[in-house]
Design goal:
mainly alpha, 7 helices
Length: 94
Amino acid sequence: MMNLEQRQLCGVRRARMRFRIREVLDRNNTNAKRIAEALGISHQAVLKVLQGNSHSIRVLDALRAAGVPERYLFDPRSEHAMDLLPTQEEGTGT
């Protein structure tokens, strides 16, 4: 289970990858608006996830299903997310 600081760091890392996420969506002929429509949620809700301000399970799963690689998502539920975060030795900026 991730602590609050680790979850925040996942959001920061995903925000840094948002343009790569959008590139993947473009290559797969979709975008944040289409994902929002398919989920029945607002476009802003999807953007909040892309910007790292939210960790919506539904949106993260939809992004994954749309072909976005796990290494761009920094999903706090993923066991791989912990591997992608810096260790104490590398520092977290705090």
